[in-house]
Amino acid sequence: MATEEAVMATGESYDVIVVGSGGGGLVGAYVAASRGLRTLVIEKTDRVGGTTAYSGAGLWYPGSAPMKRAGVEDDAENARTYLRSVVDDDTREHLQDAYLDAGPKLIDELEQNPWFQSFVHGPVPDYFASNPGSSPGGRTIFPPEVAVADLGEHAALVRDSIPTERWGVAPGPVLDGGRALIGRALMAFLETGKGSLRVNTRLESLVLEAGRVVGVTASAEGGEQLTFRAERGVLLAAGGFERDAELRQKHHPVPLDGSWSNGTPGNTGDALRAGVAVGADTDLLDEAWYVPGLVHPDGLPVFHTGTRGGIWVNGAGERFVNETRPYDQAGHELVRLHVTTGVSHIPCHWVFDQRHLDRDSFGGSPDEPVRPEWLRSGALKKADSLAALAGLIGVPYEQLTKTVEEFNGYAHTGVDERFHRGETPWDQMYQHIVGFPAGPVMNYPAPASPDWPNPLLLPLDTPPYYAATIVLSDIGTKGGLRTDEHARVLRPDGGPIAGLYAAGNTAAAMSGRTYPGAGTPIGSSLAFSYRAVLDLVGTGSVV
Questions:
Q1: At residue 413, what are phi and psi to the nearest 5 degrees?
Q2: Strand locations in 296-340 (E)
Q3: pLDDT tens digits for range 431-449
Q4: N or C end: fewer C-beta atoms under 10 angstroms in the chain?
């Protein structure tokens, strides 16, 4: 922990310091700088955007202006009823209320700046269809695209997408999804004239003065030690610890090393450790925004949002889940079953046949349904019979055959009697689109199948047969520093640490162990960064 004297002697001084440049960090920095506060953003890596840049940038904001413009009726109390029911934790109700209040107000403010333009509603159903207040049309909004050319030289600062980072896919002339949100927020922040950005600058510690956080120490590229003073406060919005093997193995029920995560590589828990070092309490450290990950030819997974065809089987050759279930629920089911049943579910196997491939493709196009590297690398296995496929993936042939026969019976009736695939609004969305919202595997819309009553239940009876590997991935950890409704970081006794705020995956999630709807993680990051700035400003504006 640095001393006040070190900051006073050698450090630059700002009103606000934001650690991290994901959606919450940059939007919070913009909100502060737009109020006249001298604001510094420090980013550990050489690019801004964090995990937000990998995402579709959905924001779950019930009652927001984009929903009203789209003609979507949504009552705030109805959304509150849904959130209460899903989270089912009265210790988080004050956080839920703060979130529901902040989201629409933040969007109203952002849309006054030409860089943010107008967000749009996307019809993504809420994830818990049977809970009271659930919306089949969804409450998720998205930022508009922005041309790379509009960002000028600053475009090079925006983190690339996963396909570009990992496989060298050309990024194209426009930024969309999370990269669009980041590009817009970056430009809005810098154009305030009050914003400064330092990349390749890693948080080392927080500086305390008489129990108040008054600055940070950081290390620059090459090892230079830096100190910065924060007159108003420090906002930690630096992501979670999903890429830190030590923390994961200490806290998580499945001790992964982080290499399967779809969080940005810089998310190794620096802000969490710094907060704990000054006395912060923590919560939900055993949790993550778990998702199924489809292993690609490079040996690493990509967040898999849902499955239109085929089945997933565990190490015993048994089907165990609705494969189109909302991804966080499917990911948590992988964890639960792997830990409690004695049967391997991590990895599991996605089994499908030629009928499925002909309809939906597999990471290719109608002319080339499977790109050669999938089969060449072994990421996708192919066999002329189920018996041969069972041998390739190491599951009992008799049980795999029984599982497929049962599933084929459901395909003929159109009713999945075991796991109810195709019955919820979320599932039914997959009858019409494929691969939403991030990283499509089957990447073009495919028609429904008129010969079968449920287009999400096609029989597995047309050789050759295929199997891909599904592992446990995540889009970040969701446990972190405990905060209040103003995003103030709390001590174990419940009192706030003066001058210290946290948002996004640096903070324990408002939604607890659940994922209510598309855009909850990024929506929370932006909303609580906004709340943090309003609190440290006090009056809400600076002249």
A1: -90, -20
A2: 301-303, 311-313
A3: 765 433 333 333 334 444 5
A4: C
Neighbours of 491 (CB within 10 A): 14
Instruction: Catalogue the E-assigned strands of 157-287.
Output: 174-175, 195-198, 201-209, 212-220, 225-236, 282-283
* 21, HSE (Cβ side, Cα atoms, 13 Å): 33
Q: For the chain, what is the radius of gyration of the CA atoms?
A: 24
Q: Are 312 and 346 in contact (CB under 8 A)?
A: no
- Longest CA–CA separation in the chain, Å: 76
Beta bridge partners of 470: 294, 348
CA angle 128, 514, 57 (to 5 degrees): 85
Q: Amino acid identity of 53?
A: A
Q: For residue 198, how far is the Cα from the chain centroid?
A: 24
Torsion 505-510-511-512 (CA) sign: positive
Structure-token pair, residue 454 = 């449920």
By the 8 A CB rule, do 324 and 309 touch?
Answer: no
CA geometry: angle 76, 136, 71, nearest 5 deg: 60
Classify residue 121 as exposed, middle or buried by CB count within 10 Å of its CB (0-12, 13-18, 19+): buried
Residues belonging to the chain: 543
End-to-end CA distance of the chain: 34
Q: In what order do the strands lie in the sheet with 59-60?
A: 59-60, 140-142, 120-122
**Contact partners, residue 5, CB within 8 Å, separation at least 6:** none
pTM of the model: 0.94
Q: How far is CA 520 from CA 38, 76, 120, 126, 283, in A?
A: 29, 16, 16, 10, 18
